[in-house]
Amino acid sequence: MATIDARPFAFPFDKRKAALMIIDMQRDFLEHGGFGEALGNDVTLLGAIVPAVGRLLQAWRAHDLTIIHTMECHRPDLSDLPAAKRDRGEPKLRIGEIGPMGRILVAGEPGTEIIAALSPRGDEIVIEKPGKGAFYATNLSEILKSRGITQLVFTGVTTEVCVQTTMREANDRGYECLLVEDATESYFPNFKAATLDMVRAQGAIVGWTALTNDILQGLSHD
Ligand code: C5J
Fold first, then answer.
1. Is the C-beta atom of 38 inside 6 A of ligand 1?
2. According to DSSP H, which parts of 105-210 are helical?
């Protein structure tokens, strides 16, 4: 088995059992006029990771390994949107309202789509999730079990919200989780740094962290 140079210690990597998780790389979080901006964030910060996520995506495709894209979104009738989530805070646009890219975080709307640079191929799994975590109210567990996946390599946005929530859900379900330091981003650099520290503290209590180049190197071994 290959090992990946990771923190707090080497990650034992079995690529045939490792899925690439690309969390919520959606226009609503990365582009102007979407949910991220409606919440008052500088969305341009998130674009920095697109090349790294793209390199991992191409590598997983080249090795014909499992790729899971997730999208935070709700049904058009909003029946899966709790009032507590809809009404929280004072965003310029709430979930379900109409913005420049269509209805905010509603399935099928232009703003809800994954950004063009990382667009899923037809054979890749796309999980539409109403929560921050990708296991809540989805069939992700069944998909991973049916493919014999035991390791998850995490990329995407935002580090401390949907990425961390999904990673913690996965850790509790027995998956070995590796968070890619330069392929995840937050609107708040200090929150990203704190999340990386929290994940790998206390002997990898939630999982490991590593850099894209080291993961690509691990992928090149049989
Ligand atoms: C947020 C996400 N931040 N994908 N969603 O609301 O992290």
1. no
2. 140-146, 164-172, 189-204
Q: Which two tokens stand for residue 212?
A: 């894209």
Q: What is the pTM of this model?
A: 0.98
For 13-37, the pLDDT digits (tens) are 999 999 999 999 999 999 999 999 9
CB 67 within 8 A of CB 57: yes
pLDDT value, residue 175:
98
Nearest CA to ligand 1 atom 4: 162
Contact indicator for 46, 187 with CB cutoff of 8 Å: yes
> Is the preceding peptide bond at 51 cis, omega within 30 degrees of 0?
no
What pLDDT shows up at residue 222? 79
> How large is the C-alpha radius of gyration of the chain?
17
Q: What number is the average pLDDT over the span 160-184? A: 98
Per-residue pLDDT averaged across 134-163, rounded? 98
Q: What does the alpha-carbon distance between residue 200 and residue 202 come to, in Å, rounded to a whole number?
A: 7
Note whether 35 and 88 are within 8 A (CB): no
Render pLDDT for 165-176 as a digit per residue (tens, 0 to 9). Answer: 999 999 999 999
Residue of 136, 30, 123 whose CA lies nearest to 74: 136
- Do the Cβ atoms of 29 and 23 come closer than 8 Å? no
Measured in angstroms, how far is the CA atom of residue 31 from the centroid of ligand 1?
13
Q: Does the Cβ of 72 fall within 6 Å of ligand 1?
A: yes
> Ligand 1 centroid to 122 CA: how many Å?
24
